Every structure is written in C-alpha cells, then in structure tokens.
Amino acid sequence: MRRLxxxxxxxxxxxxxxxxxxxxxxVFVLVLMRAxxxxxxxxxxxxxxxxxxxxxxxxxxxxxxxxRVLRPGEEPELQQLVGRLAxxxxxxxxxxxxxxTDMPNAFATGRSPxxxxxxxxxxxxxxxxxxxxxxxxxxxxxxxxxxxMALMTMASFFATVASFIVQMAFWFMPIGGxxxxxxxxxxxYLVSLVVWIISFFLIRAFSRYREYAADRGSAILxxxxxxLMSALIKLHRAGRLPRRDLRHAEALQALFIxxxxxxxxxxxxxxxxxxxxxxxxxxxxxxxEVNR
Length: 292
What we know:
mainly alpha; four-stranded mixed beta sheet; single chain
C-alpha cells in the first residue's frame, strides 16, 4: 500500500515561515503599541479576530467559493474516491463539497485533518477523466495530510490586517493636526506596509513549495504522475477561457490547485503557484522515480 511520509522540506519551510512571520508580527504589535494603541485593546481585537479566523475560516472559504458540503449518499463515487485516498494517506476522511461552476478547479480547507473539507467544482468532474480526477483529489488530500492549510490561514490573516491598515491609513491619516499624531500615524502606516510586503513574499514562497509537495503526494498516492500532468494542462487551458466563475474568489487562489487569476503576475516570484512548466518538469522527475 502506498503511504505518504512526512515531507522534511515542507516541515522545515513551515517552521521557518512560522518563525519569521511570528517575529514580524511581534514587531508589528510593538509598533502599534508605540503609536498609542493600548496593549489590552490590541490583544482583545487581534485575538478575537484570530480565533474567529482559526475556527471559522473553513466555513468562510466555503461560503466565499459557493461550495456546498455533500450529505451522505450524494455523489457516492466522488465521496468513495476521497475516502479511499484518505485511507491511503492515513488521515480521517474529510468532508466533500461541490462548487457549482463550469470552471474546473479544486481546493482543500480546514484547520486540521479532522476538520478538513475537500471541494471540487462540477466543471472539474465533467472535464477530467476518472484517473485525472483521482490525481487532482490526491493532490488536495496531500494538503490535508501535510497540515499546510492551517499555516496559510494564520499567515494570511495577519497579512490581511496589515493590508487593511495600510489602505485605511492612507485615507484617514491626520494632516495639519497634532505633530505627534501625524508621526504616530505615519509610523503605523510605514510599518504596516513593510509587514504586508514581507508577508506577501513569505506566503507566496511557502505556497509555491507546498504545491510541489502536494504534487509529489499525488504521484505517490496514485502511482501515476502522468495523470496529474494531464489534469494540470487541462485546468490551465480552461483557466484561459474568458469566464468569471471562480475569479470573484481571487483572494482565495492560494487554496486552489491552479490559480483562478490568469493575469495576476508576469513573474513566478509574485505568484502563489509555480508555473505550469515548472510543475510539469517536477512531475516528470517524479514519474522517472516511479518507473524506477
């Protein structure tokens, strides 16, 4: 039986990313306090928002994407396939959701394997063959196994807060008032901007590696890297079609197996996913390993 082993590279990157982000956000909180915001207020507001994000992020993501969790007996073949892959990955069987859209895509969410949801669009089920669908779902099951979704959720939360402060400070920065207030507001603005920029690149670097790790997990679970290669080519071709569909959920694109925004960036450095060419090259190397 094919079993997933812990990915040492992913674990190392998760640890380093958490350390860097924690240090970054600690400096952020200290600057907010230096600007006159009370410690208790920061703890209550940020802590409350963080708790909500941690425990309810999966529900928010499902609502944002329009996904509906299947009841027992609905789409039995899809639920059985997810259950079989979960058994191979040695994790609890996640809930399965369907997103009613022609755009083929899939994602996994949840703070832990016990609270995970694997979602697939109706377009994905219609446009992929059964082996290709299995390969895509194995990719998402690997995300659940690797527990990388929780880090993405937590990191994205603080980056969102910093981005919000940057936007609001630009419009409401006091001008012509007390000099100390102006300096404090400017300090908060600049530090929030730096936090957002650093978080932006850290999150994307980690996100790209976790996609490689999930591709490898799919190759191990299915034993057929070529099926994931075929599926990715189809998904990228479909992503070029001029449809809106999931593009209204562009903020969630780090969760999808392929980006929903076809023109988000010209450079991989700014992207949440590796380029198709790099992923296919990685899968070809995995296929050679499997064949050996």
